[in-house]
Design brief:
Layout: E1 6-13, E2 30-35, E3 38-42, H1 49-56, E4 66-68, H2 74-77, H3 80-93, E5 104-107, E6 115-116, H4 130-136, E7 138-141, E8 146-147, E9 152-154, E10 172-173, E11 176-177, E12 185-190, E13 193-198, H5 205-216, E14 221-227, H6 235-248, E15 252-256, H7 261-270, E16 281-285
Parallel strand pairs: 3-4, 4-5, 5-7, 13-14, 14-15
Antiparallel strand pairs: 1-2, 1-16, 2-3, 6-10, 8-9, 9-12, 10-11, 12-13
Amino acid sequence: MNKDSSVIITILVDNNTYIDQYLLGEPGFSALVEIDGLIVLFDAGYSDVFLHNAEKMKIDLRAIDGVALSHGHLDHTWGLEPLMRLFAETEFHAQTDTDRPRPFLIAHPGALTEKHIIPSPRQIGNLISIHSLEAMFDLRLSREPQQISKHMTFLGEIPRVTPFEPARPLGMSGSQPDYLLDDSALAIRTAEGLVILTGCSHAGIGNIITYAQQVMNEQRVVDIIGGLHLLNPAPEKMQGTIDLLKGLRLHALHACHCTDLSAKLSLGAALPLKEVGSGLRLKFQLSDA
C-alpha cells in the first residue's frame, strides 16, 4: 500500500501493452489507484486479464479497499465476476482477517442496468445482479460526486455542456435509448493540478474536464489518463477536443483504450501524448491543500 504523499496509478488492462512489460492486453480498461492509504480498482476490464497482469506485477487485488466503475459497458464491468470469485475463494480459505470490511463499489446507478445494441438482444452491460453485488460489496450508487479520499473524487453524472460533443445514444438501456449518463471519471488533486482518470469518456472528455474543474475547484489539469472515445470522430469534435486540451497546458496526455490511431496522431501533433498500455505505472505528488 502506498502510504506517502503521492498517488500511484497502474494500468492493469488496456488494448495495448506497455513496452517491455510482457503482460496481456484486451479491448478493455482497468487501473489501480493507490492514494491516501486506500487501494481502489477503477474498472475491471472485459475478462480476468487484469487479475493475471496484477499477479505478474506482484499486486494482490484481494487487498483492495474498493472498486469504482467508469460506466456499465462489458469492457469495463465483466471482470467483476472473476474478481468476486477471487474474493469468495479467499474468504472461504481465510484463516485470519475474516472481519475485514467489505470492499465498496462506487458507480452511477445506470452503470448496473441492462444494456444492448439494437436489434441484437445480446447484453453489452453488467451481467451481475444487484443482489449479488450487494452481498459482496458495500454498494454506493450515486449520480452526485462522491469523495473517495482526501484527494480523489468520483464525479458522478457528467453534465453535457460542450458544443462539439453532442449527446448521442449508443444502444438501449432497458427500454430507453442509452445516452450513457452513467459515464463518469475520477478526479485526483495533485500538487501541480488535477489528474483525470477516465474509462471511455462517452460523456465527452471536454465535459468531463469542465465538470472535474468545477467539482474540485481547480482549473489546472496536469494529466488525463484513459479512453477518450475518439473513434473516427467528426472533424469538429476532433478539433474541438484538441483546442480544449491545448488550452489546459497539460504536462502529459495518456490517451488509450477507445482512442483510435488517427485520433492519436492528431493529438500527438498538438499535445504531449505519451505511450500507455498494460503495465504502465505513473506517480504524482499530492497537494497539501
